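My current task is to audit a protein record that another person submitted. Thanks in advance; the entry in question is below:
***
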Amino acid sequence: MICATRQSSRVLRCLMLWPLCPKLRLYHQLTAQETQVALRPFYFAVHPDLFGQFPVERKVNEESLKKLSEHIQTIQTGGHTRQNTIAFYFRNIKQKNSGIFQRVEIKLKADLRETIVELLRMCGLSLEFIDSIQRNGNKSRIPRQMFGTSQWIREWEKQFHQEDAKENTKSHLGSWLQRNVPRAKENAINNQPIRKETEKLKRMLIEELGLIDIVWDSDWRYCHFIACLKSFYRLLAEQPVTMKALRGRCLIFTQVTGVSIHGNVLLGKEEVPHNWFKMITNIKQFRDIIEVIPTYEEMLSSYLNNVEIKQHSSDPHALLYLKQLQTLVGSLKKHHYDGDDPKLLGDWSYLQLVVESGAGPLSLSPSGQFSVPTSCPASLVIAFLMQNRNTAQERIHKQKLLNIEEKSIIEQCVYELELHSLKKENNISSADMIYCCRRLHKLYMSEMASNVQLLQGANINVSTYYAVQQDGTLTVPWNWTDL
């Protein structure tokens, strides 16, 4: 008993020291997620879809993006890289003439970080995010604003698609709506031709390829969606035979290219059509991957007293998810056979666990789900679950009640304020959404009827900032201030 107690104490002490002691952590390499976020402003500057009227520049950028993608993939898989030189054309946002481009030549390096820094530096783009990732020690935490709402993305969107930059979240909601609702309605009217063209092209592709559906899984607006559809249509015209493999599937434009665990086809909205084509030609190989995933989920659950395994998203990338499962299962299996783990008591089927990428933190979410990075030692995972299982159970129960209340207050706001839609972004918790909706309902139902009419037919998106989107959506912070 004493030995077991000492062993448990050592594990818990290691758990507390894990974020603090460099000796307990591996040398930090850029993860796939960090690489994608760091390169997002660069993709915005050089993506071929921005050069539709300039075929020479478009062709150069498309070929260079292919080489860059292959170079990054080789580094991430541990292969041998060649230090080639690639060229890009990009438009400086300070230049008013849309036909003037700058050409830069960049030497690809064996170090992924150095390559990314060089790409951003040569194009005059911010190094803020890449500098925030330390080479040694601290686990990386990607700030929320890096996912689609940061200033550099807004600047590029404003240049190419007339999007609005963020506004101060301290603005008063009532006065902000009075100023911006008319502009939002005008944007919605002006966006109708783009929306109609997008829906027409979408229906045509579904019928021609026999698809179940085409889904736009992104916060980006319709102008980006139609650009992706047109790129896909050109690929269909060039490779009609290969595209027959998509029949009976759902096509989802999202963050990365691949096949989901449910067999849906994922196309990265920031990638060039060549990468889409390479994946589609090998689409049958994903069938074996999808079939083996449930087996690994069951193995992971069995090592942790039947804990329920949840996916990070509703339909994750099959290959990436399988690799994460294999890594974590392998770590737990070795730890189990070494006989080092403490005795796991009782049934943990009431707990929920989400497998994260290697760079994420070991944590318990407000909704009660354990987030477990694949790089975390098995002993720390087990100790963390044992220490926090009661708290997790309480949070899961609380989250179920919050989900019911959130759904109810959203429906009430939509009905009584006569909104067209009321949604939230993924980084807004149920508690924050409820808080926002209650105050919104109270504010407008306590004022004159004319104020309610101001929001008639409006599309409201709850986030952390103010913005009027190109399609007329009003984005407001959940913690807006009163008059």
User: Anything to note?
Assistant: The radius of gyration is 25 Å. Confidence is low (pLDDT under 50) at residues 1-28, 135-167. Residues 32-133 form one domain.
